[in-house]
Amino acid sequence: MMIEDANTEKAKEKLSVRVKYSQIGFFLLALILLICIVAQVYLAGMAIFEDPVNWGRHRIFVHMFEYISILMFFLGFIGRLPWKMIWGSFGMFALCNIQYYTAHGIAGALHPVLALVLFWVSFTLAWSSYRYYLGVLAASTDTTLLTTQK
Prior knowledge:
InterPro entries: DUF6220. The protein is mostly helical. The chain has 6 helices and no strands.
C-alpha cells in the first residue's frame, strides 16, 4: 500500500512538472510568435516604403515561424490550458494558412487586415497564457519559496 502511494505521488509530481513546463513553453512560443508577426509586418513595410527586395525576405521569413502555433496547440493539451487558448493557437495556424491565399489577386486587400487579426490573436494568447501561468503559480504551494527569497 505504501509503495503504491509513493508511486502515485511520483506520477503526480511528474505530471505536474510536465504540465508546468508545457505551460511555460506555450507562453514562450506565444511570445516568439508575437515577435515574429511584428517582424513580418515590419518587413512588409520595408518592402513598401524602402526597397522592394524586402518582399523576398517577407516571403521567406514566414516559413521560419508558421508552425509555431501547431506546437502551441499540442503544448496546450499537455499543459491542460483552457480550451480558448488551445483552439486559439489552432486558429492562428488556420489564419497563417489563409494568409497564403490572400497574398495575391482580389483577396489581397484582406492580407493586411488578417495580419492585424494575427497580431491581436497572438498578443491575446501570449497575455492570457502569461496570466494563466501566474495564476497557477500563485495558487501553488511553491510561492512561499518566491516570497522568502527577497
